[in-house]
Amino acid sequence: MTTLLTFRDSVKAFCSRYDYIITPILKFILALVLFCNINAQIGYMPILQNKLVVVLLSGICAFLPLEIMAGIGGVMIILNSAKVSLDATLVGLALMLIFYFGYARFSPKTGIIALLVPLCYRLHIIYALPIILGFSVGPAAIIPVIFGVILYYYGISLGELMNLLSASAAAEEEETVQGYQYIMTSLVDNHLMLLIFVVFACVILVTYAIYRASFSNSWIVAFVVGGFLNVVLFLVGGVTSSVEVEIAPIFVGSLVGIVLAVVCQFGKGIVDYQRTELLQFEDDEYYYYVKAIPKLSVAESNKNVKRINSKTHN
Amino acid sequence: MVREENVKLMSRIAIYEKHAGKTEIPMHKFYKGDYVRLNCLKTVVSATIVFLLAASLIAVYKLEYLLANILKMNYKGMLIAVLGIYAAWILLYWLVARVVYAARYEKARSNIIIYNHHLKKLQEEGRKEAVKAKGGVVIGDDFIDF
Asked: Is B140 part of a structural domain of the chain?
């Protein structure tokens, strides 16, 4: 355990010292993965499929805040939808605007969670997400997760619509498919999506409440209860609302969620480090270019305590 | 001449202005009540946009039904229902905004106090230097200007 803690401190010290290099690299990777995922799911616009454009956009995002990255992702989704049908784009645009004016304007940093949801679906860890978000973000993550799930199902509907449109164009049918009605019907009639909203909201709230409780080891109890609740609520919800729910992925996802949450809990201390600051300011006489490096102490692991007197004092 | 103490103070001020200060300094140009009211007003505008967008989405989705029943509909009842939902929607947003923005203002207060303290200290150092440059003497916190 001491070795692990020392390792964590070393990572923290390293991140703290080279933050100005590490953060842009991590942001670049995140943007690249998110944009590639959008292209893989709904990549209908050829210019956005171009690898150079994706790398360029990710490069720009590396030096911008996460909220701008989320905004660029949203614009990419809208542009891809425009290639399918104009009325489907209107639905997407309206949903994005509702999310922005209704929530993201007040809590812009959580906007990126909405884009992470489709990525988690692709990585098959979607059922692990509420447990991780429950303790790391809390109730503020509920709305972005719900919007992310809508975004995922919107992408699926868009794919189906694209297939239908190309099939009807190939068959030269006179009656064309109405994109707006198709997308809206597939979203409104999707009972599984509604069940996911309810379960994810409950799991996030319960995990957060237990995690913040003051009893010892509340964190591990929060993860286990969150995982258990995830499975039970999906089972109960599936039976009561007659929605077909595959229990195996939920069970595995919840287990993965608990493990990932434990790992994140261990690494949580790494994230809140004091950063190296590169500052510029001036007074009447000078321009100052200051690099402020935080003082850090890393625990030493190789301390040997030799007991030379075994007597105990009463 | 570069003074180490001043550089330290200026660095602390610059770090704050670079991060949390970006949002917290403009926030504290207002009294708490004014800040909360202003943001509640902005929130009402946002909530209205959301309501209009959602209502338009639903109206276009149900367009066929609306057109088929255009002559049979009880417009007065519908208007009352829509206005009722709108009022409840705005009230909900208003209440949440009041709580959230008041909490944000309070959270920023301690940081602003420290920031102002650093600024005052820097200003004091500057005044001391100016007195010394003129040949004066600084005793404790008092300036004796000859």
From this structure: no
Which one-letter DSSP state was computed for residue A272?
S
pLDDT at residue B15 is higher than 70: yes
Across the interface, whether the CB atoms of B7 and A102 are under 8 A apart is answered no
Condensed to tens digits (0 to 9), the pLDDT of residues B79-108 reads 999 999 999 999 999 999 999 999 999 999
- Provide the residue ranges of all domains of chain A, joining segments of one domain with +: 19-275
- Counting the structural domains of chain B, the total is 1
Q: Which chain B positions have a beta carbon within 8 Å of A290's beta carbon? A: 7, 10-11, 14
Establish if A91 touches chain B: CB-CB under 8 angstroms: yes
Q: Is residue B55 part of a domain?
A: yes
Would the CB atoms of B43 and A106 count as touching at under 8 Å?
yes
Residue B146: per-residue pLDDT: 47
| Residue-level pLDDT at B72 | 87
The Cα of B3 is separated from the nearest Cα of chain A by a number of Å equal to 11
Which residue on chain B is closest to A107 by alpha carbon?
Answer: B100
pLDDT in tens, A264-307: 888 776 666 667 788 888 888 889 998 888 776 655 555 566 67
Closest in A91, A102, A292 to B15, CB measured: A292
Are A292 and B10 a contacting pair at CB < 8 A? Answer: no
Q: Do B10 and A288 touch (CB under 8 A)?
A: yes
Q: Does A305 touch chain B if contact means CB atoms closer than 8 Å?
A: no
CA distance A80 to A103: 24
Which regions in chain A score pLDDT beneath 50? Answer: none
What whole-number distance in Å separates Cα of residue A134 and Cα of residue A116? 15
- Would you say residue B139 lies in a domain? no
Alpha-carbon distance A86 to A64, whole Å? 30
Domain for residue B28, yes or no?
no
State ipTM.
0.82
The count of C-alpha atoms lying within 13 angstroms of the C-alpha of A10, restricted to the half-sphere facing its C-beta, is: 8
- The range of the structural domain enclosing residue B96 comes to 4-15+41-133
- Residues A254, A126: contact at Cβ < 8 Å? no
pTM, entire model: 0.84
Alpha-carbon distances, residue B89 vs A100, A121, B50, B93 (angstroms): 16, 32, 10, 6
Q: Do B57 and A290 touch (CB under 8 A)?
A: no
